[in-house]
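Re: [ENG-882] Designed sequences occasionally contain unexpected residues at chain ends

Forwarding the minimal case from QA. Structure tokens:
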């Protein structure tokens, strides 16, 4: 079966592949700019995902501008600790928010529906572009079930393992995995316990970073980042103070993982296709910024479409992600090196520098 255009004769201006937070935000942005938008997403219902769930202040502002106000727990800053030393930085102005991914999805999906975003369940398996001279061309998304949707632009918002990125030739060749696999992965789980801090706590365990994010008045999320095979329970047990706090807390979700986190790209645009969010390239979750960056990219991609200046998108993407790419790459390299042990003590000894780094990643 094929369904060109919108099925009902309507021209789809923006096809969004992936109904995660960034895909939904892109579609909301499109509608707020008067463009028709279709989201294609294989999963139904409320979507969950492995995430640290710390929404940085800049992301809270982006969400509010979209009319999206998820319920969560205020985050006043970020602390680094290693059992002996603690560095703490409180955000200079606005607060961040700890938000369950299911709640973030609910809030975004409701807003998208309110604005008339069309959502189709399906998995995109092929993308085709054609140029129409004066008309400017079109792009079509082919679904696994045989349906096809045609639109003016297509945004690949399909996450870390983006199919769109592969299909349009923007995936960088994967580097050979050495025998000693140092690629990083993440696992998260939630616990029923009243948060004991208003900060995202980053615990530097010997072999993993363990993030604690308050997500409501009665629940915290714990995310573990480390090499393949890192055990969630072992990482937790290696931080006695945290293990003690969670000892009697009931798990409220099952452990969920994601990775490898590092995803290199050759670019972010191919003709009428733009990559947005994790699909556009990702370094690591160590600085907890994916949502903030993805929301800014989604807004920018739609601005480029509205201004009919798609060629600007890649330059803007580089500008938006510059600090993230530089600082996160540096921090991951330090985390994998003998310098690892010095990270929390150095942050504690240099509070100004630590604060400046957290601020630059927060907005
Ligand atoms: C362990 C961990 C901790 C993290 N902690 C934080 C944090 O504290 N703060 C923060 O801001 N970020 C954090 N991140 C990063 C954050 O989770 C991501 O940046 C964010 O989810 C990106 O959203 P997205 O919409 O681009 O991708 P996703 O959330 O992955 O959504 C992609 C969607 O595309 C769909 N899809 C996939 N393939 C197709 C296809 N072929 N056709 C149609 N649809 C498709 C998927 O079903 C999915 O719903 C963390 C990540 C990890 C792994």
């Amino acid at each position: 079966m094929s369904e060109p255009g919108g099925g009902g004769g309507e021209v789809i201006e923006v096809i969004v592949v992936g109904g995660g937070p960034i895909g939904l935000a892109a579609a909301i942005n499109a509608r707020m700019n008067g463009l028709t938008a279709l989201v294609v997403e294989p999963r139904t219902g409320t979507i969950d995902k492995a995430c640290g769930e710390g929404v940085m202040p800049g992301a809270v502002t982006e969400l509010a501008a979209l009319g999206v106000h998820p319920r969560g727990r205020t985050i006043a800053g970020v602390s680094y600790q290693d059992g002996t030393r603690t560095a703490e930085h409180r955000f200079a102005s606005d607060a961040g928010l700890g938000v369950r991914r299911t709640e973030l999805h609910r809030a975004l999906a409701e807003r998208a529906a309110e604005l008339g975003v069309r959502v189709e369940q399906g998995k995109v398996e092929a993308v085709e572009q054609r140029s129409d001279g004066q008309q400017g061309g079109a792009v079509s998304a082919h679904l696994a079930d045989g349906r096809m949707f045609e639109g003016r632009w297509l945004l690949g918002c399909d996450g870390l393992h983006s199919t769109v990125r592969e299909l349009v030739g923007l995936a960088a060749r994967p580097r050979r995995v050495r025998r000693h696999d140092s690629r990083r992965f993440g696992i998260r789980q939630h616990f029923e316990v009243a948060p004991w801090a208003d900060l995202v706590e980053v615990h530097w365990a010997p072999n993993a970073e363990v993030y604690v994010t308050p997500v409501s008045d009665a629940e915290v999320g714990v995310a573990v980042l480390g090499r393949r095979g890192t055990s969630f329970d072992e990482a937790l047990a290696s931080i006695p103070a945290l293990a003690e706090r969670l000892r009697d807390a009931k798990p409220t979700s099952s452990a969920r993982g994601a990775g490898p986190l590092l995803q290199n790209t050759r670019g972010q645009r191919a003709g009428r296709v733009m990559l947005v969010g994790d699909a556009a390239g990702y370094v690591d979750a160590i600085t907890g910024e994916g949502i903030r960056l993805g929301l800014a990219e989604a807004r920018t991609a739609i601005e480029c479409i509205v201004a009919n200046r798609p060629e600007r998108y890649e330059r803007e993407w580089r500008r938006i992600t510059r600090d993230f790419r530089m600082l996160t790459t540096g921090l991951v390299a330090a985390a994998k090196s003998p310098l690892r042990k010095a990270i929390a003590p150095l942050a504690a000894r240099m509070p100004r520098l630590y604060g400046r780094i957290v601020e630059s990643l927060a907005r």
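QA comment: On inspection the terminal residues look reasonable. The longest helix spans residues 313-335. Proposing we downgrade this to a documentation issue.
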